[in-house]
HTH-type transcriptional regulator PksA (Lederbergia ruris), 202 residues
Amino acid sequence: MPKIVDHEKRKKQIAEATWKVILEQGMEGATVRNIAKEAGLSLGALRYYFSTQDELFVYAMKLVKENATERINKIAASESPPFEKVMAILLEIVPIDAQTMAEMEVWFAYVFYTRHKEDVFAAKKDEIFKGMKKLLLYLQERQILRSSLDIEIETERLYALIDGLALHALLEPQRMDKERIVKVIQYHMKKICIDGALVEGE
């Protein structure tokens, strides 16, 4: 009886092998041959699922995004107080543990690799920016954000802060550790929120 192959599971296995190769060898080492070897597949088997290297990269990065989105959606659907909820979402975007650190390192490697290849650059460059604006509007609707703030400018500031922290966490993990990241984000968010509206203990 022929073995039934779960094709979606196999594609995710290949994507995870791609992440591992990128982490260990960089984008230069992420050849189809190296990825197939890491996944324990022949070149022919890998090409059955992904006909080109770019197609594989796009899928692998899409999976990174989906993993992060799933975690964020769970937080968004929780019953946590608004300020606490926004803090938790922001901390899913910045790498503060082994999993998010690996995802962010792979993501940045892919972004730099594809920055001159618009035809394969599937990552929406403004998605995080839009996400920052949605979080601020959410706080504004809950009357937690200071009323005098310019949402457009504050979106730019929050976007720059989160993006910068993510990059510094990758480049200087000893200095920019989880504790420091949390303190910096909390400090910024407290500055733009009304004191009395914050959850107790924040």
The chain has a mean pLDDT of 86. The radius of gyration is 20 Å. The domain at 63-197 is CATH 1.10.357.10 (Tetracycline Repressor; domain 2). The chain has nine helices and no strands.
